[in-house]
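Sorry to interrupt, but I need a hand with the structure work. Please put the record directly below this note.
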Amino acid sequence: MIISLVKAVHVGGLVMGFGGAALADYMLFTRCISRPVTQGAVNYIHFLSRIVACGLGILWISGLMLVWLRIQTTPEFAANPKLWAKITIVSILTVNGIVIHKFALKRLEHSIGRRYFDGAGALETAGLMLCASISSMSWMVPFLLGMLPELNYVAPAAHILAVYVALIGFVWAAMPAAIHVATRPKWRSAY
Protein backbone atom coordinates (compact mmCIF):
# COMPACT_ATOMS: atom_id res chain seq x y z
CA MET A 1 0.00 0.00 0.00
CA ILE A 2 2.73 2.48 0.95
CA ILE A 3 4.67 1.73 -2.24
CA SER A 4 1.58 2.47 -4.34
CA LEU A 5 1.08 5.77 -2.53
CA VAL A 6 4.72 6.78 -3.02
CA LYS A 7 4.50 5.77 -6.71
CA ALA A 8 1.43 7.99 -7.10
CA VAL A 9 3.32 10.91 -5.55
CA HIS A 10 6.28 10.13 -7.83
CA VAL A 11 4.04 10.22 -10.92
CA GLY A 12 2.57 13.50 -9.66
CA GLY A 13 6.06 14.98 -9.42
CA LEU A 14 6.81 13.73 -12.92
CA VAL A 15 3.64 15.32 -14.30
CA MET A 16 4.49 18.63 -12.61
CA GLY A 17 8.13 18.63 -13.72
CA PHE A 18 7.88 17.16 -17.20
CA GLY A 19 4.59 18.90 -17.96
CA GLY A 20 5.80 22.26 -16.68
CA ALA A 21 9.05 21.96 -18.63
CA ALA A 22 7.19 21.02 -21.82
CA LEU A 23 4.81 23.99 -21.43
CA ALA A 24 7.70 26.37 -20.71
CA ASP A 25 9.58 25.10 -23.77
CA TYR A 26 6.46 25.48 -25.91
CA MET A 27 5.91 29.02 -24.64
CA LEU A 28 9.54 29.93 -25.23
CA PHE A 29 9.53 28.41 -28.71
CA THR A 30 6.23 29.92 -29.87
CA ARG A 31 6.28 33.28 -28.06
CA CYS A 32 9.88 34.24 -27.39
CA ILE A 33 12.05 32.95 -30.22
CA SER A 34 10.01 34.02 -33.24
CA ARG A 35 8.67 37.26 -31.73
CA PRO A 36 9.67 39.80 -29.13
CA VAL A 37 9.58 38.58 -25.53
CA THR A 38 6.78 40.11 -23.46
CA GLN A 39 6.58 40.62 -19.70
CA GLY A 40 3.59 38.26 -19.72
CA ALA A 41 5.64 35.50 -21.33
CA VAL A 42 8.43 36.03 -18.78
CA ASN A 43 5.95 35.86 -15.89
CA TYR A 44 4.34 32.70 -17.27
CA ILE A 45 7.67 30.95 -17.85
CA HIS A 46 8.84 31.92 -14.34
CA PHE A 47 5.60 30.47 -12.92
CA LEU A 48 6.15 27.26 -14.88
CA SER A 49 9.78 27.08 -13.74
CA ARG A 50 8.59 27.07 -10.11
CA ILE A 51 6.23 24.20 -10.91
CA VAL A 52 9.12 22.33 -12.58
CA ALA A 53 11.38 22.87 -9.56
CA CYS A 54 8.65 21.66 -7.20
CA GLY A 55 8.02 18.61 -9.39
CA LEU A 56 11.73 17.82 -9.46
CA GLY A 57 11.90 18.07 -5.68
CA ILE A 58 8.94 15.71 -5.35
CA LEU A 59 10.62 13.32 -7.81
CA TRP A 60 13.82 13.24 -5.76
CA ILE A 61 12.07 12.68 -2.43
CA SER A 62 9.60 10.09 -3.71
CA GLY A 63 12.24 8.41 -5.89
CA LEU A 64 14.63 7.97 -2.98
CA MET A 65 11.75 6.66 -0.88
CA LEU A 66 10.87 4.15 -3.60
CA VAL A 67 14.47 2.97 -3.81
CA TRP A 68 14.66 2.59 -0.02
CA LEU A 69 11.34 0.69 0.11
CA ARG A 70 12.37 -1.55 -2.77
CA ILE A 71 15.74 -2.37 -1.21
CA GLN A 72 13.96 -3.43 1.99
CA THR A 73 12.22 -6.26 0.14
CA THR A 74 14.68 -6.85 -2.71
CA PRO A 75 18.25 -5.92 -1.65
CA GLU A 76 19.67 -6.72 -5.10
CA PHE A 77 17.64 -3.80 -6.49
CA ALA A 78 20.53 -1.55 -5.42
CA ALA A 79 22.64 -3.27 -8.09
CA ASN A 80 20.16 -2.58 -10.91
CA PRO A 81 22.11 -0.68 -13.63
CA LYS A 82 18.91 0.96 -14.87
CA LEU A 83 18.41 2.49 -11.42
CA TRP A 84 21.88 4.04 -11.49
CA ALA A 85 21.36 5.33 -15.03
CA LYS A 86 18.13 7.03 -13.91
CA ILE A 87 19.82 8.54 -10.84
CA THR A 88 22.66 9.82 -13.04
CA ILE A 89 20.24 11.37 -15.54
CA VAL A 90 18.10 13.01 -12.86
CA SER A 91 21.28 14.37 -11.24
CA ILE A 92 22.23 15.89 -14.60
CA LEU A 93 18.68 17.25 -14.92
CA THR A 94 19.01 18.88 -11.50
CA VAL A 95 22.33 20.57 -12.31
CA ASN A 96 20.97 21.63 -15.70
CA GLY A 97 17.93 23.14 -13.96
CA ILE A 98 20.23 25.26 -11.80
CA VAL A 99 22.07 26.43 -14.93
CA ILE A 100 18.76 27.25 -16.64
CA HIS A 101 17.62 29.31 -13.64
CA LYS A 102 20.93 31.16 -13.39
CA PHE A 103 21.46 31.87 -17.10
CA ALA A 104 18.58 31.04 -19.45
CA LEU A 105 15.86 32.67 -17.34
CA LYS A 106 18.07 35.72 -16.74
CA ARG A 107 18.53 36.04 -20.49
CA LEU A 108 14.77 35.80 -20.91
CA GLU A 109 14.24 38.70 -18.48
CA HIS A 110 16.78 40.82 -20.38
CA SER A 111 15.15 39.97 -23.72
CA ILE A 112 11.86 41.81 -23.13
CA GLY A 113 11.03 43.74 -26.29
CA ARG A 114 13.23 41.62 -28.55
CA ARG A 115 13.47 37.99 -29.59
CA TYR A 116 15.16 35.60 -27.18
CA PHE A 117 18.28 34.92 -29.26
CA ASP A 118 18.66 38.49 -30.61
CA GLY A 119 22.10 39.76 -29.68
CA ALA A 120 23.31 36.37 -28.43
CA GLY A 121 26.65 35.21 -29.76
CA ALA A 122 27.17 31.79 -31.30
CA LEU A 123 28.63 30.32 -28.11
CA GLU A 124 25.82 31.63 -25.90
CA THR A 125 23.19 30.42 -28.36
CA ALA A 126 24.80 26.97 -28.53
CA GLY A 127 24.93 26.82 -24.73
CA LEU A 128 21.27 27.78 -24.36
CA MET A 129 20.30 25.19 -26.97
CA LEU A 130 22.39 22.57 -25.17
CA CYS A 131 20.60 23.34 -21.88
CA ALA A 132 17.24 22.94 -23.62
CA SER A 133 18.36 19.67 -25.21
CA ILE A 134 19.61 18.29 -21.90
CA SER A 135 16.38 19.31 -20.20
CA SER A 136 14.07 17.70 -22.73
CA MET A 137 15.96 14.42 -22.88
CA SER A 138 16.54 14.34 -19.12
CA TRP A 139 12.79 14.37 -18.57
CA MET A 140 11.97 12.01 -21.44
CA VAL A 141 14.56 9.26 -20.93
CA PRO A 142 13.85 8.50 -17.22
CA PHE A 143 10.12 8.60 -18.02
CA LEU A 144 10.64 5.98 -20.73
CA LEU A 145 12.97 3.93 -18.52
CA GLY A 146 10.28 3.84 -15.86
CA MET A 147 7.95 2.29 -18.40
CA LEU A 148 10.45 -0.40 -19.41
CA PRO A 149 10.86 -2.92 -16.57
CA GLU A 150 12.31 -5.30 -19.19
CA LEU A 151 15.57 -3.35 -18.92
CA ASN A 152 15.95 -4.05 -15.18
CA TYR A 153 19.21 -5.89 -14.46
CA VAL A 154 19.91 -6.54 -18.18
CA ALA A 155 20.76 -3.18 -19.74
CA PRO A 156 24.15 -1.86 -18.63
CA ALA A 157 24.04 1.69 -17.28
CA ALA A 158 26.75 2.68 -19.78
CA HIS A 159 24.53 1.64 -22.70
CA ILE A 160 21.53 3.53 -21.34
CA LEU A 161 23.66 6.63 -20.77
CA ALA A 162 25.19 6.33 -24.26
CA VAL A 163 21.70 6.38 -25.80
CA TYR A 164 20.79 9.33 -23.56
CA VAL A 165 23.86 11.31 -24.68
CA ALA A 166 23.17 10.44 -28.33
CA LEU A 167 19.60 11.70 -27.99
CA ILE A 168 20.84 14.95 -26.44
CA GLY A 169 23.26 15.32 -29.35
CA PHE A 170 20.52 14.68 -31.90
CA VAL A 171 18.14 17.21 -30.33
CA TRP A 172 20.96 19.77 -29.99
CA ALA A 173 21.96 19.30 -33.64
CA ALA A 174 18.35 19.62 -34.83
CA MET A 175 17.56 22.71 -32.78
CA PRO A 176 19.07 25.34 -35.11
CA ALA A 177 16.95 24.02 -37.98
CA ALA A 178 13.82 24.10 -35.81
CA ILE A 179 14.58 27.67 -34.75
CA HIS A 180 15.22 28.67 -38.36
CA VAL A 181 11.82 27.30 -39.36
CA ALA A 182 10.12 28.96 -36.37
CA THR A 183 11.58 32.36 -37.16
CA ARG A 184 10.68 32.40 -40.86
CA PRO A 185 8.13 35.14 -41.59
CA LYS A 186 5.71 32.63 -43.19
CA TRP A 187 5.68 30.52 -39.97
CA ARG A 188 5.21 33.56 -37.73
CA SER A 189 2.27 34.90 -39.70
CA ALA A 190 0.38 31.62 -39.27
CA TYR A 191 0.05 32.22 -35.53
Summary: The chain is about 80% helix and 0% strand. Residues 16 and 51 are 6 Å apart (CA to CA). The chain has one domain: 2-189.
